Amino acid sequence: MPTHLSVNVNAIAQLRNRRNLPWPSVVGLSRIAMQAGAYGITVHPRPDERHIRRTDVFDLSDMLRREFKTAEFNIEGYPSEDFLALCERARPDQVTLVPDDPAQSTSDHGWDTAKDAALLTRVVARLKAQGMRVSLFLDADPGLVAGARATGADRVELYTGPYGGAFAEAEAKAERDKLKATAEAARAAGLGVNAGHDLTLDNLPPLVAAIPFLAEVSIGHALTADALIHGMTETVKLYRRACGDKG
User: Fold this and answer.
1) Considering 4, 51, 72, 197, which one is annotated as catalytic?
2) For residue 90, what pLDDT is reported?
């Protein structure tokens, strides 16, 4: 079974927000991505709304539920009370918890599953009680997996930033091996495995080959950049093929 592709539309929203104009349309381009065969849409709303706005969350949720009934809606973020309340209103299929500081430009590390155990256990239980799948953002370290499992989470999302930033093949293989070891530990613990950050058409196929049970990848920056060249429809098809989807 191919790895599912979730299109992160934060970069589209950030481009829109440069002007007080309604384009590029986050909903419109998400619709095109879904029509091209994407599995779902990911957003990471931040408190300052520098890209995804709260209104985007509900507009996307409405569009997906109305037009793509099997699509997955994934909301990422730090579990502040405001974020949790947003998730409880929007009811996405999956919530990916990320240990972001509001000032960060992008996610750059995963949870310390020992230090953050009490917070994560409480939040995971709250979200799962309302029917949402919960994934925890983790660095490539098998030692973090037992703590993630103890929180009650359903999945982990492997932070692939160091892998995406490794341009020499030897360095990339070393990072890929760490991701593979962490994924195998997660699978052995009964957790599903997602991945995301700095994944591209070039580095995605070797990762999928190394982790053939990878459930889902969330890709935004590179996919949006490629869509400027190829268009959203063709770009989604290219990334689906990179995920092993022959359809």
Assistant:
1) 197
2) 98
Is 230 tagged catalytic? Answer: no
Instruction: Give the dihedral sign, CA 58/63/66/71.
Output: negative
Q: The whole model's pTM is what? A: 0.96
- Ordered structural domains, the chain, with CATH: 42-215 (3.20.20.70)
pLDDT score, position 109:
86
The reply to whether 44 belongs to the active site is yes
Q: Which are the contacts of 99, defined by CB distance < 8 A and separation ≥ 6?
A: 78, 109, 110, 111, 112, 116, 137
The residue annotated as part of the active site, out of 4, 44, 51, 175, is: 44
Choosing from 4, 51, 72, 76, the catalytic residue is 76
User: Which portions of the chain are predicted below pLDDT 50?
Assistant: none
